[in-house]
Design goal:
This protein is mainly alpha-helical. The chain is about 35% helix and about 10% strand.
């Protein structure tokens, strides 16, 4: 069975990769070693992809829920408490972080155990395969 890798921050089935492995993955894809180094898409291809990646045509479209406002209790005080609890550190990759993420992806559920600190890159990454990430985050919160 092939392992599913989710970026260099390194999660294979919810288990963190060793730092040495993450460093090797980074080095493999730097500069000219990257298989896409020096390659560019045509103007027509970029235009076509733009049309496909907008709104309801986008693979991750959730019915416009991203446009719904956050409730008033999801404020700077609550976010600061979550960041302090997590030591201003991304709970996936371990770098300095500022984004506060809802574990269950429900903007109205602002219970502190449903919130976690992530860096911008990881916060973007976890919007794909949401069911997988909900399980990962639940395990992380239980361990605390």
């Amino acid at each position: 069975m092939a392992a599913i890798q989710s970026g260099i921050s390194g999660f294979w089935y919810g288990k963190k990769l060793p730092e040495k492995t993450k460093q090797k993955l980074r080095e493999v894809n730097i500069g000219e070693n990257n298989p896409y180094f020096g390659k560019h898409h045509s103007k027509e291809y970029r235009q076509k992809m733009t049309e496909v990646m907008i709104g309801e045509k986008h693979w991750n479209w959730k019915g416009g829920t991203s446009f719904e406002p956050y409730p008033s209790e999801f404020n700077n005080v609550l976010k600061r408490l979550v960041r302090q609890r997590d030591s201003y550190t991304c709970q996936l990759c371990g770098i300095e972080a500022r984004a506060v993420h809802h574990i269950d992806y429900d903007k109205s559920n602002n219970v502190i155990r449903n919130l976690i600190t992530l860096c911008g890159k990881c916060n973007t990454k976890v919007n794909y395969r949401r069911e997988f990430w909900i399980e990962v985050f639940k395990k992380l919160v239980k361990e605390k």
